[in-house]
Structures are given as structure tokens and as C-alpha cells.
Amino acid sequence: MDTIIRLENISKLYRGVPAVKNVTFELKRGEIHALLGENGAGKSTLTKMIAGVVEPSSGKMFHKGVETIYATPNDALEAGIAMVFQETSLVGSMTVAQNLYLGSEKFLNRLRGIYISAQQFLQSLNFSVDPTAMVETLGAAKKQMVEIARAVHHNAEVIIFDEPTATLTPEEKRHFFALIRRLKARGVSIVFISHALEEALMLSDRITILRDGELVASGETKDFDRDKIIAAMVGRTLSAELYRQRDESKIRKAGKRSCPSRTFRWAPRCATIPSRSSRARSPASSA
């Protein structure tokens, strides 16, 4: 597979603090690439630079081998890059159908025709959303479906999904995963941000992991498992963390056993009041 997006040593600083620092990232044509990391790792910032939402502070971006930086999301969309945001960018005062075709509607197109077309398109995606409903009346899951449908409708070559399954039911997730696989079969390149590691391992072809704004691991999904991902995300293995917690628990328990409850207020923590028998046997008391 050839590379459709490449970022070279890209960084984004906010008031001098790096949100993303010298990251090199590749997205190949027709692949599902999972982007993982803890909250604040820089995942959304990295993808927003690809989609033209924020401009990088330094570094280069190549789209189909041509160096470019998109100034706005519309510029990126016209070039074939769409992003489905975690926080929806829909117009609440418009209907689902109007949002779906916003920017691509035909001049003086009849609303009835738009609604019929939108209904057919949503059904083809197995999304149960009423095209005549006002977006502001929809729940989070339905809004996410409209966001996804709008990105697919634009026939983008690159689609970025930022936590797309966070609000979906298990049944809705199943339809979404089937859609992802259909898009991949059509040659669409997908960046998939998720906190659900099982979803990333199940869906993706490759995985990239960020920690504190820096790239810490990248490779084919077959080379990762859950423990390896967690170790890269947090900087330590899960087993090491469990052993550390167990040892700390033992130390706390041992400390409680060695420190009686009766202590002098002015004395160190484990300085205890000597018993009468010990005072009687001591040299000082016998003298």
C-alpha cells in the first residue's frame, strides 16, 4: 500500500507547551490505522492538524506526496480529508437531511427530494435516523451517526474518526464496524481514535501509540496485544504496576502491625510507651 498522508516531525505548541512533539506518522491507502493513548496524549491534536482544524507549529505534512498544510476543515474536505469529531459540528437549527447535504445541495433543490435521498442514504448505512428531525432534538448517539454519514457522503479518501463508538449501543457499533470494513474495501484510508483497546485490535491494520504528545510505538496490529499497548500508553507494564501495588500494601500492613496505637504525641511515629514489666527490668529502674 502506498502512503496517502505523511507527517514529518510535526509539533503543535500552545503557549509554549507542546501538545504534540516531533511526531512522524504515516497513513497508507486503504488501511485502518488506530491511534491510541491516554487522555491528553495528543491524539486529537495530531488528527486535527491533518484535517485543517489547527495549524502545526512546526514540521511537514504530505498529502499524496505533495507537501501541504490545510488552513481550514473545508480546504481539507475539498482535498478528500474528512473528520468525524467527538464533539459534533452539526448545525442544530437544521434538519438531519440539511446537515447531511450542507455545502453540496443543488440550487433550488426541493426539500422533499432531499429528505427522500437522505432517507435512502441513511438506510444504506443501517443508521436509524429520521432525516426530517431537527438535529438539536437528537441524542448524542444519533448526532454521531449523522456526523459519520456526512463524512461518508462526501466520498472522502481519508476519514478520521475521533471516539466514534463512545455513544453507540452494541447494535449500532456492529453496524458501524461493518461500515468501516466496507469503506476500507473501497480504498478509503481511516484513522480510528479509541479508548477501547479491543476495538482497535479487532479493526485496525496498524497501531500508533502516543504518550505525552510523543510517539512511543507504531507498527502492524499483529505485533501488539492488550498488555503491550497499555505498557506503551502508561510507560510501565500492567504486571509491574500490580506488583508495585501489592508491595505497597504489604508495607502498609507491616507498618500497622509494628506501630501500636498508644504513642507519645511528641515522639516519632512508631515510638511506643514501654510496658511496666519492661521498665522494671531495665538497668535504669534497677539502679
What are the salient characteristics of this protein?
2 domains, alpha/beta, 38% helix, Rossmann fold, 287 residues, four-stranded antiparallel sheet, disordered C terminus, six-stranded mixed sheet
Number of domains: 2
Task: Tell me the overall shape.
Answer: globular
**CATH topology (fold) name of the largest domain:** Rossmann fold
Rg result: 28 Å
Strand order of the largest sheet: 6-7-8-3-9-10
Order of helices and strands: EEEHEEHEHHHEHEHEEHHHH
Share in helix: 25-40%
At CATH level 2, the architecture of the largest domain is: 3-Layer(aba) Sandwich
- Strand content is 15-25%
Task: Give the rounded overall mean pLDDT.
Answer: 83
- How many helices? The count is 11
How many angstroms does the end-to-end distance come to?
Answer: 92 Å
Q: Indicate the structural class.
A: alpha/beta
Based on DSSP secondary structure assignment, what is the total number of beta strands?
10
Low-confidence segments, given as residue ranges, are 260-273, 282-287
Major beta sheet, specifics?
6 strands, mixed
Superfamily (CATH H level) name of the largest domain: P-loop containing nucleotide triphosphate hydrolases
CATH top level label of the largest domain? Alpha Beta
